[in-house]
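User: Could you write out the 3D structure of this protein bound to pyridoxal-5'-phosphate? I've included everything you need below.
Assistant: Certainly. Input first, then the structure.
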Amino acid sequence: MSINASGWKPNIGDGQGDHERPSFTGNRALMLEEPLIFEIGDTERTGVDLADAPAANAVDRLGALLRSAPIGLPGLTEPETVRHYTRLSRQNYAIDLGLFPLGSCTMKHNPRLNEKMARLPGFADLHPLTPIEQCQGALALIHLVGEWLKALTNMPAIAMSPKAGAHGELCGLLAIRAAHEARERAGGAARRTVLVPESAHGTNPATAAFCGYAVESIPATGDGRVDLAALKAKLGPDIAAVMITNPNTCGLFERDMIAIADAVHAAGAYLYCDGANFNAIVGRVRPGDLGIDAMHINLHKTFSTPHGGGGPGAGPVVFSQALAPFAPLPFVEKQGDRFVLVEEETAQAEHHGDAFGRMVAFHGQMGMFVRAAAYMLSHGADGLRQVAEDAVLAANYVLRSLEDVLEAPFAASGPCMHEALFSDEGLADGFSTLDIAKALIDEGFHPMTMYFPLVVHGAMLIEPTETESRATLDQFIGALRSVAERGKAGDPTLQQAPIHAPRRRLDETLAARKPVLVWREQPDAAVAAE
Ligand SMILES: *Cc1c(COP(=O)(O)O)cnc(C)c1O
């Protein structure tokens, strides 16, 4: 890879698209190539006019720490910088560009009203240490969202502070662990194991292990649900908790939830519910009625608020009466007309002495709370119920429209919830789910979730969400049908896909196992970094 004096590096394309005449620039029409900023920037250029550093006696003060080699940061002029990042942003796929069918992710449209509300200076500019008397409105809003979530789940207590689904799982399991430790202090035996279904999101076993528990898996039945008999057989005095996702990651409702809760409680354990899929049942099912002890809610999946690409999330956790005393601090409490933030010091002295501690320094993701409040208030109770109904309808529309071309392992057992699940069975020899996903990129769609859940071979998990129109769904279905037909017919061009994307097939295993995260000037490293 040669970089000429001006930093320009022509024809960066990987040469796989040779059926097209390569352009001088490497650009393909208005799809612009973009090298790394290190490859186009140099230390001679800058977008800012800095005064010379004062001749301080830095040498004396820094001693051996004084930098001896150039820092190697790239410099660009302001327009070059703006264009670099704008060109990169155009290579992103985003929910504002098209359907994002990722299952287990709930990538839905974020109403702009939410954004406007979150940017109100009274919320956006609030300092986390603002005196309580001066942020009553913000506390009222946190309290309102918490009350609505408690009402929607029929659970008596809530921790608003966790900052993501996985963080909420940690919060829930820490409360469960604190409850068991309290029992141990009263003479109970230690419990060391958490049961997690085979189909669980990877964060579930990871959370249990992070809390110091051994993890054992519960098998699934042939119809994609938790095997109640197998679960019961595993329950015993060593089991601290059972983590169940409902609706589960096969896109199915766990019908035996009450029987599961009864068995778990009879064994002296707690029932944790992964509520990341609440979008499918909000307004229709109250998890508190199912005997759940703790459940996180992904505000960023169910109550809009943008996520993906590292954006902020929020994972409030609702608790049963049994776990409420162990919930973390701080929390907002309404005392007469005032809202107070119950912090550790006062709490320990007055009440809530069993709280396991804190999840975060302050109160959680304020911007997410504002977005969720705007979303809830603008939908109302009937609107929130319709969200779930439309999400389930859209997923079933996808399932039934494609089950004649793609194998749908659980379709025979009835409607799905918010996700349609297909397997790779029936694709021609040598063709895989990966080929289908890559070909969808050429069709202009972000691929679905693939190879998850693990209980289905070559899984393709599709969650259209409630915010897609019938026309969009039809276009997606048409694209997936065409790609699936090519896969079944063994069309070799499918294995070349994507041919229209900025990059073709990368060595994803190598990238994951040996990530090159630091750019160095050696040509080999520059190639690997791509
Ligand atoms: C998204 C998701 C999680 C994790 O949520 P994060 O906010 O990404 O940490 C956990 N479980 C399930 C089923 C999910 O879909």
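The longest strand covers residues 239-245.
User: Perfect, thank you.
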